[in-house]
Write a structure and sequence with these properties.
FAD/NAD(P)-binding domain; alpha/beta; TIM Barrel; 658 residues; eight-stranded parallel barrel; binds flavin mononucleotide; Rossmann fold; globular; 3 domains
């Protein structure tokens, strides 16, 4: 493995220093954490799309790239539809090609060995495998809302231990340099370790030693299969964060038990299957970055094995501090490498200010549930690495491109088009670039959106795009500009329903205005509309000391939001606001709103009424511009009101067609 040394030559000497793990020497302290988004075939084999997805992370400079959750005993251990199955015939070629692809891109290949335990037979978050007739085996018998769990028979325990050994041998044969044993996040070993889930009376239950026996025997089987110096990483919980679960102290004890059996201890936490906890295992924007690092630091004091931490890390300066201060030896990065796989490369080359920040919006997970692929709000290439790998044909001719609207879509289109060699002008009506990223990033927990805006602005500048601010583009403007290609990215207007009596009263403030000018709001606020915008605004206003009520016509607040983000969002909304669902605003009054629910009308008092009822595209205006230029593209909210993801990915696609 080639390793260019960056120690002593850069801002992050500790982060970029090598470290030995068993028989491999990592070129830096950054491991691409396991993130396994579908992209596996129905027989449980690798696909080229998955290989390219992993290869890109390796190209970005991580020392090790980990593939997540490969199932060692698929009959009883597969909890999602599209999971790699190590006991499925015919999987060697794909595994071999995958390891090779990672190697060729300069990283070591790691693969996680896993078993879903009881969730392999129960409905599981993020997967819709047909579990009809499948038995759920957990440590102990239990009746759960999702179905019955059988106590795992001892013979099956021994069979699974053997399958860990077989799986490890197989991946080693196929060229993987390392294995990671998944003993966290509520899956099999985590279930056995848990005093709540494990109530067995045999040698696999009772004391912590007994509850850890299954894991320890599996580690021994793996060691036997791979030999003495082959690196074994274990993913442990630093705290189950569950009432009566495995607490920090017990997790330290588990770490001590595995200390002699593994080469790296990776400390995560929580439980994948609890929606609120999911947002701690994969920390949401309501947690500070690095919120779980203390768990790794706690374990590191008691073990001699190197320790890795994980959770919301993306800033090289913070990661440098973690390593330099001895809190952990290695950092693992999950989602931030979907947003920007080149974080390690950018750390090496002093380009940290160009890192595309992960917004922690969970759209990567949301897409897995929807389509068994993944995507990233801020990175249009994520999930499309295979297509990208083969590059794009060069632009046939240099075109004069006019982009109308400087929001995220307009900026992304301008950057990509300029990089492809076109002469690009970006016209923006207001005095600054960013569009709705400004109100969207105004809340205290949305600072990543502000960073994203700055990153795009800088890229626009570096790409040599001609930016014309305070420029209202009209059909006459387009005619006189006479572009070869036009990209319309003018966004949408906030919807202000004229039919609601009182909508024009002075106590009504539109959501964008409210986000940007909270000083204009009275103490008591009623938000009309409990979608994402209204829900997040409620948290923000509450944080600023307001008394907040949300009125929503539908039966759910933030119903359109992916279930993963919603899991972390709802507890915050519930703390922040009184929520009226199935409730319609009939009239806005100087003293609040008159609403109707279940046929009954009543008044909710408020000083300010915030209108957060969504956006509408002005298609007539869009059509008046596109009619003037043969080669035209319409992207973002003015094409169809959507998320930042839609604006950015449509922008990328349009700019690639130019
Ligand atoms: C799309 C996706 C898939 C993931 N799959 C796995 C997995 O297969 N195994 C696992 O242990 N963790 C998995 N994780 C969790 C990550 O490894 C990581 O622990 C978590 O995302 C927190 O780190 P982050 O904040 O840097 O994303 C996944 C995360 C994402 C975003």
């Amino acid at each position: 493995m080639s390793a260019q040394s960056f120690e002593g030559k850069c801002r992050y000497p500790n982060l970029l220093s090598p470290i030995r793990i068993g028989n491999i020497k990592l070129k830096n302290r950054i491991i691409a954490a396991p993130t396994s988004p579908g992209m596996i075939d129905t027989q449980g084999h690798m696909t080229y799309a998955m290989q390219a997805y992993l290869e890109r992370k390796a190209k970005g400079g991580a020392a090790v790239v980990t593939y997540g959750e490969s199932i060692v005993h698929s009959l009883t251990g597969k909890q999602h539809n599209m999971q790699l199955q190590l006991d499925s015939y015919g999987n060697r070629q794909g595994l071999k090609e995958c390891a090779e692809a990672i190697h060729r891109a300069g990283a070591y290949a790691n693969i996680q060995l896993s078993h879903g335990g009881k969730y392999a037979g129960l409905a599981s978050v993020g997967g819709d495998e047909d579990k009809e007739g499948k038995i759920a085996y957990g440590p102990s018998h239990e009746i759960t809302p999702a179905g019955e769990v059988q106590e795992m028979p001892r013979e099956l325990i021994y069979e699974i231990i053997e399958s860990y050994g077989k799986g490890a041998a197989l991946v080693k044969d196929c060229g993987f340099d390392m294995v990671q044993v998944h003993a966290a996040h509520g899956w099999l070993f985590s279930q056995f370790l848990s005093p709540v889930m494990n109530r067995r009376t045999d040698e696999f239950g009772g004391s912590l030693e007994n509850r850890a026996r299954f894991l320890l025997m599996s580690l021994d089987a793996i060691r036997k299969a791979v030999g003495p110096r082959f690196p074994i990483e274990i993913r442990l919980s630093g705290d189950d964060m569950m009432a009566n679960g495995l607490d920090e102290k017990a997790c330290i004890e588990v770490a001590k038990m595995v200390d002699d059996k593994v080469d790296l201890i990776n400390v995560s936490c929580g439980n994948h299957e609890d929606p609120e906890m999911f947002c701690r295992t994969h920390p949401s924007a309501f947690w500070p970055r690095g919120v779980n690092v203390y768990l790794a630091a706690g374990i590191k004091k008691y073990v001699k094995t190197p320790v890795a931490c994980v959770g919301s890390l993306n800033d090289p300066a913070q990661m440098e501090h973690i390593i330099a201060s001895g809190q952990a030896d290695i950092v693992e990065i999950g989602r931030a490498l979907l947003a920007d796989p080149y974080i390690p490369y950018k750390a090496m080359h002093d380009q940290a200010d160009d890192i595309t920040p992960c917004l922690r919006c969970y759209e990567c997970f949301g897409e897995i549930v929807k389509s068994e692929t993944t995507k990233c709000t801020v990175n249009p290439i994520t999930g499309h690495e295979l297509e990208e790998k083969y590059g794009h044909p060069a632009a046939l001719k240099k075109k004069k491109v006019l982009i109308v609207g400087g929001g995220p879509g307009g900026m992304e289109a301008a950057i990509v088009a300029a990089k492809r060699g076109h002469e690009v002008t970006l016209a923006e009506k207001s005095g600054k670039l960013g569009g709705n990223l400004h109100p969207a990033g105004a809340a205290y927990f949305k600072e990543d959106i502000v960073k994203f805006c700055h990153v795009l602005e800088k890229r626009v500048e570096r790409a040599g795009v001609q930016v014309q601010l305070n420029t209202e583009v009209t059909p006459d403007f387009v005619k006189s500009f006479d572009p070869d290609a036009l990209i319309v990215a003018v966004g949408a207007k906030e919807w202000k329903p004229g039919f609601i009596k009182g909508i024009d009263l002075p106590n009504v403030v539109m959501a964008i205005q409210a986000e940007l000018h909270p000083e204009q709001l009275g103490h008591r606020i009623v938000i009309m509309g409990g979608g994402l915008v209204g829900g997040e605004a409620a948290i923000s206003f509450h944080h600023e000391g307001h008394d907040v009520t949300i009125v929503e016509m539908k039966d759910k607040i933030a119903g359109e939001v992916n279930s993963f983000y919603r899991g972390g969002l709802m507890p915050q909304i519930e703390k922040a606001a009184a929520c009226y669902v199935n409730t319609t605003v009939k009239e806005i009054l100087p003293e609040g709103v008159r609403v109707e629910r279940d046929g009954k009308e009543f008044i909710i008092n408020a000083d300010t009424v915030v209108c957060a009822l969504g956006f509408r595209a002005d298609y007539d205006f869009v059509d008046s511009l596109t009619a003037l230029v043969d080669e035209n593209y319409v992207i973002g909210d003015c094409r169809n009101v959507g998320m930042i993801y839609h604006a950015v990915s449509q922008a990328y696609n349009a700019a690639m067609q130019l």
